[in-house]
Amino acid sequence: MKNSLIIAGKELAAFFVQPVAYVVMSVFLLLGGFFFFALLRRFDLVLQIYAAMQNPQVLEHMNLNSWVIEPMLHNLSIVLVILVPAITMRSFAEEKRTGTYELLLTAPIRTGEIVAGKFIAAALFVLIMIGLAAMFPLILILFGNPEIGVIFSGYLGLSFLAVSFVAVGLFTSSVTQNQIIAAISCFGVLLMLYVISWPAESGGAAFADLLRYISLPEHFSRMVSGIIDTKDIVYFLSLIFVALFLTQRSVESARWR
Q1: How many Cα neighbours within 13 Å face the side chain of 80?
Q2: Is the separation of the CB atoms in 92 and 170 below 8 Å?
């Protein structure tokens, strides 16, 4: 564990000397701010319209969570599909390109510690981004009356989603020395996990249930709506475990070549 933390510290420090990290973080926060204020503005306009129409039934069902927070988190999840591959693409591919990969593999460190260290660093980086994006619902809490429990559930879901993306990105980076290929491969896998449930209605019930269970949005959407279910948490943890296991096997195979 000590070696993993040392690697994680070095990797995390390396993130903040790369301009890509600041670009990714800036894009994420700028888009988050744009989504937040655009959705808040839309909520305010619709609120004014129905207030002028004196329609109390509609006004009773309007709330900041469903009109602002939930769509913002869904939009940010799509942004992460694009940005996380840019974060993880260098994890192993860059070391292979520069020739330091062989030095890392010959060091007296277990493969699992190497993978864990790189995973912790990249996961912490994306969690820092999500933590900074928490300022948007904080504004609503200070000046409005949103449901804090639903906000917590939504951001927990976004955190699980982002860390799952990181695990997938580490695997794609471990199988190539080209960062662009690693990023595109990661994007392709994440996109597939997003759209895999689309043909669910065309098959039988068992097939449809399987595709829906594999689909990322199915689990993420429930957490965004305020439902924390153990099967959704198990899904994300399983995805992380499988991706990290495959990463370890990939690195292990390179070690014995």
Answers
A1: 30
A2: yes
How many other β-carbons are positioned within 10 Å of the β-carbon of residue 24? 22
pLDDT tens, residue by residue, 108-160:
788 888 899 999 999 999 999 999 999 999 998 988 888 999 999 999 999 99
Judge contact between 53 and 12, C-beta under 8 A.
no
Distances (CA, A) of 219 to 107, 195, 228, 236: 40, 13, 9, 8
DSSP assignment, residue 99? T
Residue whose tokens read 């199915």: 218
Measured CA to CA, the distance from residue 187 to residue 81 in angstroms comes to 6
What is the CA 170 to chain-centroid distance, rounded?
13
CA 225 to each of CA 69, 151, 155: distance values in angstroms, whole numbers, following the listed order: 9, 9, 11
How far apart (Å, rounded) are the C-alpha atoms in residues 57 and 34?
A: 30
Six token digits for residue 202? 């065309």
Buried b / exposed e along 28-55 (16+ C-beta atoms within 10 A) = beebbeebbeebbeebeeeeeebeeeee
Comparing CA positions, the residue from 124, 172, 130 lying closest to residue 7 is 124
